[in-house]
Amino acid sequence: MATTDTVYNTTTTTAQEPKSRRWLIVPSENLEKIRFVIKVIEVLLSFVAFVMEEVVSNCLQCGPLYFFEFVSCTAFLFTLLLLILLATTLHQRVGIDSWPTLDFGYTVAMAFLFLIASVVFATDNGKTSLEQGAVAFGFLATVAFFVDLIYFWKIRGFPCRKGNNQPTDQTPRPEAEKLNSNGTD
Length: 185
Hints:
By secondary structure, this protein is mainly α. It is 70% helix and 0% strand. It has one domain. It is built from 7 helices and no strands. Helix 2 packs antiparallel against helix 3 (62-87), helix 3 (62-87) runs antiparallel to helix 5 and helix 5 packs antiparallel against helix 6. The protein is elongated and about 50 Å long. Pfam families: MARVEL. Keywords: Membrane, Transmembrane, Transmembrane helix. It comes from Culter alburnus (Topmouth culter). One of its GO terms (cellular component) is membrane.
């Protein structure tokens, strides 16, 4: 009886110890340390570009300013959201299975949108130091997004290609076997 208690107590006491939960899981299967740092830089550069653009008090042609505002604000908020999701366990609760594809597609879209917005705002602004600073941070954010893309592609390849996805399940199913047998069994 004493040996059973010893075995029972050792197995139950270790199970009762609280697990240490980390809220930040970098590196993970979705985000390496280097890409985590790049995404933090994207968030910061987008935020600075957005704040500098918001401080501009008047504009002659406001269309480029508003487009740059939209892109920089969107880049800041959605990159921050993506960073939080990928760097924590929250991505497991969202129900999205293809995080690499989503991350790659989003980064491509933001890189080109930031490039277009920065070029348009650079060509048509009031030439104030705030506007030129916002444009400079817009181009820096663009570079950060493109660096993220290149690094992602170098490490993981193109995520939308069939060869890069998880292997398909080739296990034959009973229904398929019945259909293939043509009732000759």
